[in-house]
């Protein structure tokens, strides 16, 4: 089915077989169909054998007829399910009802997850029975290859079903790029090690009627929450709920409902895990710590640890919708969205959302209304191991908060998944870029440079990479790598900020272009409103930690990039209950240059302050210049048609 057809706008469109068979979703469905044939075909044809002295056939898997029956049953039912959903995929573009489309997509997601589980059980069951089979039952090894094939393709089927996602058919937005890096913890030698698999996730989709959806999700205790949120939020926002004539109030309502449904559905999805946890706990001796249990309980304890992550995991979420050239932001947690506008005075950087931490006075007021001791909460700074006061998931904190000393006096759930929504921000005539970033990115930079300037520094890095890179993915990844290097170099330098840089969390950066020129579009001249022409200036580099002089090239931008506004923004909030941001804007005065080092500095600073030089004045009281503007003036005068000055500069 056509990717854009998930909205009702294209219902009734013509079916294109070539497009249909090329879609990843369809390919995975067909691969799953073939794998199911292999599994049940192998077992039916060669899965039953008998010895020369026996007339009755028995299952090749340890004579366990249940193993063969399970493999055949799951294979046949998976085969039929694939055919059914292939037919649904063909018919799907004809469905005009938003509710019917939503039910179809949700059922597809649920069925895919269910079959991934069935195949996992089948793989474990068949592999175990094959391993314990008695070789004397099959001295000629009849059907051994078929048995191994059934086991192998049961294993492959787990991933073909698990990877099936209706979002595979949604067209990605080619106006955006993503960069990421996994968490790192440094040892004494500065070598990094990943503490856990990357738990960040992101989405960037283009729906019908020029509706765009972007999201960055920062997870903890596993990836279940971030994967679930990415799937379900897209389903709740891109199934025709939004249309070209939608009002601001309707967008606000749709976003609120989407977060509510995703939160409720995620908590419902862990019911089985809760039931399994209760069953396993009943098998353990009461009143005994897990770490002191005998070895025979180790498997139960290991399984409980896995279930704990599934139950207690959660995610901080920031989502941006662009509808009718208007921008809407919905935020739960500590990820950030920045709108960077190129103006005649320079690059204006505005944070579009608030961080839901104990430093947010609106959040503190909300918690005080629930009867909590906000003074103590501000002192602690974290609840349930997280700084964010809003998050999706985290069953333990939300449903066992009365058991937590810090939250025991609350009259209702203090940790909520209700988003703070800001909009609408008109984008007509805006030149610049939109930034979504996970907490790990700006926290890594703040650890290295101190709090307060991370937004501006990241925006400056992005603007610099726009002039160097040829794709948005390269822009985003280059910035992530630069922040990663700054963080590592600060730790390695042993300076005053090194103690804050022993580790960093997962980092994700999503950049959405709003007409800002990439290097491939306008090399190398920029219009004045987009940053200006870049001219080289040679500056000798000196460091207190390094007495040798190294040539470092800076890019002096003319006209200057001007002031950057660091503030938060809520333009026409749509509901009186949605808090507005009160932080005043602050203007930076020293933003005339973009600094770009050709080698890694000792502290990794982006805007590096040059140490004072002890230069002796000459007889006229002048100091010998240490900045060579020859190349700068040569290019400047050549472009501005000043032949006399050009000859002088030469």
Classify the oligomer.
Answer: single chain
The amount of beta strand, in percent, is 15-25%
Q: What's the overall geometry? A: globular
**How many beta-strand runs?**
21
- Cα-to-Cα separation, first versus last residue: 64 Å
Main beta sheet strand tally, sense and closure: 6 strands, antiparallel
Q: DSSP helix count?
A: 17
Instruction: Kindly provide the radius of gyration, computed on alpha-carbon positions and rounded to a whole number of angstroms.
Output: 30 Å
Mean pLDDT across residues: 77
**Poorly predicted runs of 5 or more residues:** 1-13, 521-613
- Helical coverage, percent range: 25-40%
Task: Give me the secondary-structure category.
Answer: alpha+beta
GO molecular function: kinase activator activity
Keywords: Cytoplasm, Endoplasmic reticulum, Glycoprotein, Membrane, Phosphoprotein, Transmembrane, Transmembrane helix, Ubl conjugation
Domain MARVEL: 20-173
Domain PPM-type phosphatase: 177-514
């Amino acid at each position: 089915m056509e990717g854009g057809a998930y909205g009702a706008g294209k219902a009734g469109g013509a079916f294109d077989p070539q497009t249909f068979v090329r879609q990843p979703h369809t390919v995975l469905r067909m691969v799953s169909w073939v794998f199911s044939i292999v599994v049940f075909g192998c077992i039916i044809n060669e899965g039953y054998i008998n010895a020369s002295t026996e007339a009755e056939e028995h299952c090749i898997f340890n004579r366990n007829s249940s193993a063969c029956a399970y493999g055949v049953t799951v294979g046949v039912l998976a085969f039929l399910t694939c055919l059914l959903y292939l037919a649904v995929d063909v018919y799907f573009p004809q469905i005009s009802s938003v509710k019917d489309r939503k039910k179809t997509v949700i059922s597809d997601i649920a069925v895919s997850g269910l079959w991934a589980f069935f195949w996992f059980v089948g793989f474990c069951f068949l592999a175990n029975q094959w391993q314990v089979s008695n070789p004397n039952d099959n001295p000629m090894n009849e059907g051994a290859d078929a048995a191994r094939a059934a086991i192998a393709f049961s294993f492959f089927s787990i991933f073909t079903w698990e990877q099936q996602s209706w979002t595979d058919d949604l067209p990605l937005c080619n106006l955006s790029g993503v960069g990421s890096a996994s968490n790192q913890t440094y040892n004494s030698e500065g070598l990094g090690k990943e503490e856990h698999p990357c738990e960040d996730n992101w989405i960037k989709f283009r729906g019908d009627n020029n509706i765009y959806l972007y999201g960055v999700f920062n997870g903890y205790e596993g990836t279940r929450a971030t994967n679930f949120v990415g799937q379900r939020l897209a389903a709740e926002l891109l199934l025709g709920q939004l249309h070209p004539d939608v009002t601001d109030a309707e967008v606000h309502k749709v976003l609120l409902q989407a977060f509510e449904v995703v939160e409720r559905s995620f908590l419902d999805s862990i019911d089985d895990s809760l039931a399994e946890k209760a069953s396993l706990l009943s098998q353990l001796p009461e009143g005994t710590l897990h770490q002191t249990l005998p070895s025979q309980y180790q498997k139960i304890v290991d399984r409980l640890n896995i279930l704990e992550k599934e139950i207690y995991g959660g995610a901080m979420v920031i989502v941006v919708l662009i509808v009718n050239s208007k921008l809407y932001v919905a935020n739960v947690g500590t990820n950030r969205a920045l709108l960077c506008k190129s103006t005649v005075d320079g690059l204006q950087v505005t944070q579009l959302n608030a961080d839901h931490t104990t430093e947010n006075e609106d959040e503190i007021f909300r918690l005080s209304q629930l009867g909590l001791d906000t003074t103590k909460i501000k002192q602690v700074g974290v609840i349930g191991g997280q700084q964010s006061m809003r998050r999706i998931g985290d069953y333990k904190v939300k449903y066992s908060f009365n058991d937590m000393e810090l939250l025991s006096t609350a009259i209702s759930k203090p940790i909520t998944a209700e988003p703070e929504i800001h909009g609408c921000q008109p984008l007509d005539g805006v030149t610049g870029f939109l930034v979504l970033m996970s907490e790990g990115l700006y926290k890594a930079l703040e650890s290295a440079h101190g709090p307060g300037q991370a937004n501006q520094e990241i925006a400056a890095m992005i603007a610099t990479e726009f002039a160097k890179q040829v794709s948005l993915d390269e822009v985003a990844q280059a910035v992530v790598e630069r922040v990663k290097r700054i963080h590592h170099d600060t730790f390695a330098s042993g300076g005053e900020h090194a103690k804050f840089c022993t580790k960093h969390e997962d980092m994700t950066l999503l950049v959405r272009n709003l007409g800002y020129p990439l290097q491939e579009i306008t090399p190398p001249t920029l219009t004045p409103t987009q940053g200006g022409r870049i001219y080289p200036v040679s500056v000798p580099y000196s460091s207190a930690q390094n007495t040798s002089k190294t040539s470092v090239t800076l890019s002096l931008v003319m006209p200057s990039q001007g002031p950057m506004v660091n503030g938060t923004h809520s333009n026409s909030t749509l509901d009186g209950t949605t808090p507005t941001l009160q932080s005043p804007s602050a203007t930076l005065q020293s933003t005339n240059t973009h600094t770009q080092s050709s080698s890694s500095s000792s502290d990794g600073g982006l805007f590096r302050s040059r140490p004072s030089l002890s230069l002796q004045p000459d007889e006229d009281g002048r100091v010998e210049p240490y900045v060579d503007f020859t190349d700068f003036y040569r290019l400047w005068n050549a472009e501005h048609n000043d032949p006399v000055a050009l000859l002088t500069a030469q």
